Structure formats: C-alpha cells, structure tokens
Amino acid sequence: MFGSRSRRSTAKRAALYGLFGTWFGLTVVGQKLYRDATKRTGWDKLYLVIPDWRFFAPNPGIYDHHLLMRDELADGSLTGFREISSMEERTLLHALWHPHRRAEKTVFDVAAELLRYVGEHGLVRGGADPTVQLSVPYLTLLAHVTAQQHHPDAVRTQFLICVSGGYDEEEEPTMVFLSEFHSLGRPVARCVS
Questions:
Q1: Taking each helix axis from N to C terminus, what angle separates 101-121 and 136-146, rounded to the nearest 10 degrees?
Q2: 3-class DSSP state for residue 71?
Q3: Separation CA 150–CA 78 (nearest Å)
Q4: Distances from the Cα of 6 to the Cαs of 17, 170, 182, in angstroms?
Q5: pTM for the complete prediction?
Q6: Residue ranges in the chain assigned as alpha helix (H)
Q7: Tens of pLDDT along 22-50?
Q8: Do 156 and 78 contact (CB within 8 A), yes or no?
C-alpha cells in the first residue's frame, strides 16, 4: 500500500513537471521576435494561456533621449545648447534608492510622447503642425525648460531633443526635434537716447 501511494505521488509529480515543461517550451517557441499588430491569426488566441514576453512592450527603447536648451539674449545672440536631462551614472546603491530616476524617466517618457505626436501629425502644408505647440508633451517640456536656471540676460528660450545610443559611443547623437523660441516673460532693457 505504501509503495502504490509513492508511485502515484511520483506519477503526479512527473505529470506536473511535464505540464510545466510543455508550457515553458510552448512559451519559448511561441515568442514572435517581429510582431505586426495589424496581422492577426487564430494562433493569437493561445496567448490567453501561453505568455507573450514582451518586456518594455510593445516597442523596447533602444535610444536615450536628451533634452537640451539654449537662450536668446537681449542683444539677439544665442547661448550654446546645454543638456538639462543628463542621466546619472548608476551605482549599486541605485538598485535600492534612486529618487532622481523618476525625473529622468519623466523627461524620457514625455520626449518620447512628443516625438510620437509629431510622427502622427507630421507636417501641414509644408510647415510644422501648429497643434504640436499645444500638445501636453510639448507644454510639459516647455514648463520644465522655463523652470531651469537661465542666462541673466535671457529673454527667450528654446529646447532640443536628441537621441543617442546610450552607452554605444560609436553612434553619434541625432537631433530629432527643435522647438520654437519662447519668451521667458522678462522685460527687455531698451536704450533711451
């Protein structure tokens, strides 16, 4: 009697291992490296029970976004661009405590959303779509840029979004979006003759 209980327990364990092994195997085999959301098949219903591991779904980030700004001074000259969204060098402590990561992630997400918005709306009659400047991501980045420290003589500011390969230093950063100049609300000093 004790031997038959042990054999049943072993058979149940083997069946369970077989079930989970098959499930894992189907999960590995079922991964589609290149997915086309417009094409659906009958097999897609299997993803209700077979996991579809899309980390950072649906499109993983392969570039770092950099937010830069420059100022126009009262005399009409421009300052150089300076980065205001630099990524902090990671340490082991950052695995446990990294409160600045939220600000970095916010800038990254808002910049990506602005680029998506521009990609969807494109150009209107040969010029930029004027609704871009009224979009939430544009206004969010503009508010962030205007809240930064500016040159004492600055009257207007402009921001630039660049993308780079991150740690891949062989790839040069690429400019992908340049904003209009926006007033900082400072009075312009005028010479009275």
A1: 140
A2: strand
A3: 12
A4: 16, 61, 78
A5: 0.62
A6: 2-29, 101-121, 136-146
A7: 888 887 777 665 556 666 666 666 667 77
A8: no
